[in-house]
Amino acid sequence: MNKIIRKEILSENVVKFEVEAPLIARSRKAGHFVIVKVGKYGERIPLTIAGADIDRGTITLVIQRIGRSSQKICALNEGEYITDLVGPLGQATHIENFGTVVCACGGVGTAPMLPIVEAMKKAGNRVISVQAARTKDLIILEKEMQEFSDEVVIMTDDGSYGKKGLVTNGVEEVIQREKVDLCVTIGPAIMMKFVSLLTKKYEVPTIASLNTIMVDGTGMCGACRVTVNGKTRFVCVDGPEFDAHQVDFDEMMMRLNAYKGLE
Predict the structure, then answer these.
(1) For the chain, what percent of residues have pLDDT higher than 90?
(2) How far apart, in whole angstroms, are the C-alpha atoms of residue 212 and residue 227?
(3) Are 241 and 207 in contact (CB under 8 A)?
(4) Dihedral sign, CA of 187, 193, 199, 205?
(5) Handedness of CA 206, 207, 209, 213 (dihedral sign)
(6) What's the sign of the alpha-carbon dihedral 99, 228, 153, 187?
(7) Is the predicted pLDDT of residue 260 greater than 70, yes or no?
(8) How does pLDDT run across 52-82, given as a tens digit for each residue?
(9) Local structure of residue 240 (DSSP, 8 states)
(10) What pLDDT does residue 263 have?
(11) Which residues contact 186 (CB under 8 A, 6 or more apart)?
(12) What is the distance between the alpha carbons of residues 124 and 122, in angstroms, rounded to a whole number?
């Protein structure tokens, strides 16, 4: 069991936890995720590690209240415990000095993007982060993103903060004004699809971190399978990051809706 050290409400339906997990804190890298479970018969939920403090022996998890299981986790308080927490899982983000990297994230996708932004900056890249949400209240971790970004572009659907428009509007604005060597995108599947279509038009290499349905996290169950470049891949062991221009996002979105009625 893993103790919750700190709980912070980031927005109406997004909660940030600092959780005791010393072994994971020491070994995790940008892009890694964990699988958590609350209660003996709870659902296994994959969550990307948004940060780690080796000295404190903790990791940071950001969770959005959507279905029954995420509501159970978000209802926990400081001093209570997550029943099971396994990780780090998946393949770490490939980090090197690419040049100029655009990090495009939407909503709660900002949380898993944060360690990537930090790692890319420390590797010597010029990092431009494009954060998007429906309204100002849903923009999270802006201060933390600014700390490691050369520039942060905020986009809101309603224009209540930053610039009015979608994440693709912000990404295209950057691409049109300067050379971009790599784009990394994390967020809702439909958002990543359109970021990918945009960057493909401009021939900008793009990596997407996929958020498929996942059960065991070891590649055994096959629930997280996606088609990449015409071949079946498993997000939990082969990913979560793939060449966005080769991902079949339409198939992925269809599979994501499999349990929508139950939720």
Answers:
(1) 71
(2) 12
(3) yes
(4) positive
(5) positive
(6) negative
(7) no
(8) 999 999 999 999 888 778 888 888 899 999 9
(9) S
(10) 54
(11) 104, 105, 106, 109, 110, 112, 113, 116, 192, 208, 209, 211
(12) 5
User: Does residue 218 register a pLDDT over 80?
Assistant: no
Residue with token string 């010029």: 126
Greatest CA separation for the chain: 53
Residue 219 has pLDDT above 90, yes or no: no
- The Cα–Cα gap between 81 and 72 comes to 12
**Bridge partners for 126 per DSSP:** 100
Q: Confirm if 46 and 31 have CB atoms less than 8 A apart.
A: no
Position 217 pLDDT exceeds 80:
no
Query: 46, 61, 64: which is closest to 4 by C-alpha?
Result: 61
H or E stretch covering 33: strand 33-37
Average pLDDT over residues 23-30: 93
Cα–Cα distance, 225 to 109 (Å, whole number) = 20
- The Cα–Cα gap between 255 and 66 comes to 17
Element (H, E) at 236: helix 235-238
Lowest mean pLDDT among 102-106, 120-124, 137-141: 137-141
d(CA 185, CA 40): 34
DSSP per position, 77-111: -TT-EESEEEEEESPPPP----SEEEEEEEGGGHH
